[in-house]
Specification:
The longest helix has 17 residues. This protein has 8 helices and 30 strands. About 10% of the residues lie in helices and about 40% in strands. Strands 1, 10, 11, 12, 13, 14, 15, 16, 17, 18, 19 and 20 form a 12-stranded mixed beta sheet that branches. The chain starts with a helix and ends with a strand. By secondary structure, it is mainly beta. Strand 21 and strand 22 form a beta hairpin.
């Protein structure tokens, strides 16, 4: 009854604040909300109001001062063992992220974040995963098309001190993916402390395109994460925690605070990843110049797409090309957000790079058969804070929510039903595959969604249709990628057989 009363009180307060602009609470939303989550506690009215409103990003970021050269993660070296190709260890560490105080961190093969793992299409890979933490963890390969038993979901955690060798064959085309932990109820905290790394897939087709690919010279990983620090420079997840998505006022890029990036003249490739727990980034150039997007989550777009801004919600990726020879003025040039906050300043040096960008990058297509398939699965995301659900249900590891046949394409309809506070963007992610976006609210998707995706931003009221198939068998997660929502149960399971 307490939960019901809090929900009704919140509805009344939000109605008084927003008036008719919110459109009221429908009978459908009444059916989907309190009854299905009666047994789940909430944090109180103060946290409810502050937390939910936090998803319009009211906690402003402090701009980069541009005093530290951007850290470039090392490429993961092949293992010297005859039994495995690579070894990844989740471990504790200490790092002085903010000047003046070391803070306790997590990292892969180091004290914070992880290396970049490069794989090639057609390659068979054996990776030894090791847990040197004091708590359970998993190794989830976000965006990778793999069997369910190596996907790294919450079902088979590694206990402290355990190790496991996983094996899979790389079947995807060139893409920028990533890896991170996925233990249920602890994902948000472990990512916040530093467990994240990038995974590149390369193939013969991308080799022939002559795209900028000199790692750390004209081809850069850009992993963006907002964090909050204590007054003495420590990362304290519990102090920063918000059940509706934890935000920070300082931006780390590749773990670097106040970064700058030295780049050569000519075309430069940035592989952008929103690795934040909850913050959205709308990215543009401070000069107002355009850039070209060449890839999305799961691979190359068909042709370079001229853009002046780009929205990335948590877990989304995009590859962009900036031609520093074509900009009229590179002084004080930076990537900025939609508030004008400096995210990553550039310093253009005398080196030159001369890649000619091809007009045709890929042959991605939605077939007529896919367009004409009926909707077979409908998923409705709803709620806020601890009262988040998919189809009115919270995650239960012992419950299979849906099934699908391996290799069979189905059309799912995804929707984001506004809650009593008006709603927020939910980035929706599906494990173990990539999908095609068929429509957004009955219309053709934006051009930069016409490529392989594994995560899609659902704005309040959105209805999105996707065509999806799984090449492998297993049990896979689907969930909101606001990590606190995921930990709070905004997640379901599909069994592919």
């Amino acid at each position: 009854m307490k939960i019901m009363m809090k929900w009704l009180t919140l509805t009344l307060i939000s109605s008084l604040i927003a008036g008719c602009s919110m459109g009221g609470v429908t009978e459908e939303s009444k059916e989907s909300s309190p009854e299905n989550v009666m047994n789940h506690d909430m944090s109180g009215m103060e946290g409810m109001m502050d937390g939910h409103m936090g998803h319009n990003n009211p906690l402003a970021l402090k701009g980069s001062k541009g005093v530290n050269e951007l850290s470039i993660p090392p490429l993961l070296a092949a293992s010297t063992s005859e039994n495995v190709d690579y070894t990844l260890t989740a471990q504790k560490g200490k790092r002085m992220l903010l000047e003046g105080q070391e803070t306790e961190t997590y990292g892969y093969n180091g004290d914070f974040l992880g290396p970049v793992l490069k794989l090639r299409k057609g390659e068979s890979v054996r990776i030894k995963t090791v847990n040197d933490l004091d708590e359970d963890t998993t190794f989830h390969w976000h965006g990778l098309d793999v069997p369910g038993d190596v996907d790294g979901g919450p079902h088979n955690p590694l206990k402290p001190g355990e190790e496991r060798i996983i094996q899979f064959k790389v079947t995807q085309e060139a893409a920028t993916l990533w890896f991170h932990p996925h233990p249920h109820g602890k994902t948000a905290e472990q990512v916040y402390k530093g467990l994240a790394g990038l995974l590149y897939i390369e193939d013969e087709h991308s080799d022939r395109l002559n795209l900028p690919d000199d790692y750390g010279v004209n081809d850069f990983p850009v992993l963006m994460q907002d964090r909050a620090f204590t007054p003495i420079g420590e990362l304290d997840y519990e102090a920063a925690y918000n059940s509706d998505g934890t935000l920070g006022d300082r931006l780390l890029v590749n773990g670097t605070l106040d970064p700058k990036l030295s780049v050569p003249q000519g075309k430069v490739r940035l592989r952008l990843l929103n690795g934040s727990n909850a913050r959205n980034y709308t990215i543009s150039l401070s000069s107002g110049d355009t850039f070209q997007q060449i890839a999305t989550d799961g691979g190359l777009l068909n042709d370079p797409l001229e853009m002046d801004s780009l929205l990335l919600t948590p877990a989304e990726r995009a590859e962009i090309i900036i031609d520093f020879d074509q900009l009229q003025d590179v002084k004080d040039l930076a990537l900025v957000d939609d508030q004008g906050t400096i995210l990553l300043p550039f310093e253009v040096n005398e080196k030159k790079t001369s890649n000619k960008l091809p007009a045709d990058l890929n042959s991605f297509a939605v077939t007529e058969e896919e367009r004409n398939l009926p909707v077979t699965k409908r998923l409705e995301l709803f709620g806020m804070m601890d009262m988040v659900t998919i189809n009115g249900k919270k995650f239960d590891k012992d419950r299979i929510d849906m099934t699908q046949k391996v290799g069979e394409t189905e059309v799912w309809e995804l929707s984001n039903k506004p809650d009593p506070m008006g709603g927020m963007i939910h980035p929706f992610h599906i494990h173990g595959t990539q999908f095609k976006v068929l429509s957004v609210n009955g219309e053709e998707p934006d051009d930069n969604l016409k490529g392989w995706k594994d995560t899609i931003a659902l704005h309040p009221g959105d209805r999105v249709k996707i065509a999806i198939s799984f090449a492998n068998k297993g049990v896979y997660m689907y969930h909101c990628h606001i990590l606190e929502h995921e930990d709070n149960g905004m997640m379901g399971q599909i069994e592919v057989n």
